[in-house]
Amino acid sequence: MNDQLTESQVARVVAEVTRQAQLRDQEQRQTLEREQVVQILDELKLPVELLDPAMIELKRREAEAELDARYDEALAKKRRRTFLLVGSVVAVLLVVVLVFGGMWELRRRELAAVTAIDGGRITYSGEGGEALGVVARNGGEIFYRVTLEKVPLSRSLSMKCNWIDPSGRVVKQNSWETRTTDKSVWATSCRTTLGESAAAGTWAVEMLLGDRVVSKTGFKVE
């Protein structure tokens, strides 16, 4: 090891030794021997025999203070971890809400765009046939056929039909789910029967997608 020092190094060593000496003197001034403490108690006319119990109590309090400080530090760390965890959960939930909210809004817009190509037709057959303007009360089935357009693909549509008599009363309601759609133009239908007890006059049938009327048609019952 080279013991030779430059002038700059000597100056730094002297400064460090001076600092260490000052710290030692300061510690010695702050630390009192037992005899000095006894002398102070005598001067203050305090019972010397209480010195040892007082020292024990002081150490106990210092130990408790250290434990409290450690506990507070641990509690603060736990709170920070809890805050970060809760923040992460809230962030994930927010992302989920935004994603599902966006999907729900997209589905709502897609369904809102669905319309009927025509006003719908009353027929005696679910597969087609001539459109009827007048229906006899003979107990036979009649169908309301509607062709929808702008239908979203790969969806099952929730449909309803309301059959309304001349007084405006819904005498029958159909509810069904379509097959999974595979084209944007989709034909669907509902049905009912009209017997002799059905009221004569002008009836109406309306088809709903969800709660929105997409088609409505009137017809006469004789």
Provide a descriptive summary of the structure in words.
A hairpin with a 2-residue loop joins strand 8 (201-209) and strand 9 (212-221). The chain has two domains: 32-109; 115-221, Immunoglobulin-like, CATH 2.60.40.1930. With 222 residues, the protein is α+β, with helices and mostly antiparallel strands. The chain starts with 6 loop residues before the first helix and ends with a strand. It is rod-shaped and about 125 Å long. 43% of the residues lie in helices and 26% in strands. The strands form two sheets. It has a five-stranded mixed sheet, with no helix packed on it.
Please describe the topology of this protein.
Elements: H1 7-30, H2 34-43, H3 51-112, E1 115-116, E2 121-123, E3 134-135, E4 141-149, E5 158-164, E6 170-177, E7 186-193, E8 201-209, E9 212-221
Parallel strand pairs: 3-9
Antiparallel strand pairs: 1-4, 2-4, 4-7, 5-6, 5-8, 8-9
CATH architecture of the largest domain: Sandwich
Shape: rod-shaped
The helix/strand class is alpha+beta
Number of helices: 3
* Largest sheet entry: 5 strands, mixed
The secondary-structure element order is HHHEEEEEEEEE
CATH C-level class of the largest domain: Mainly Beta
**CATH fold category name of the largest domain:** Immunoglobulin-like
Tell me the helix content: 40-55%
CATH superfamily of the largest domain: Macroglobulin (MG2) domain
Radius of gyration: 46 Å
What is the residue-mean pLDDT, rounded to a whole number?
85
The low-confidence runs, each spanning 5 or more residues with pLDDT under 50, are: none
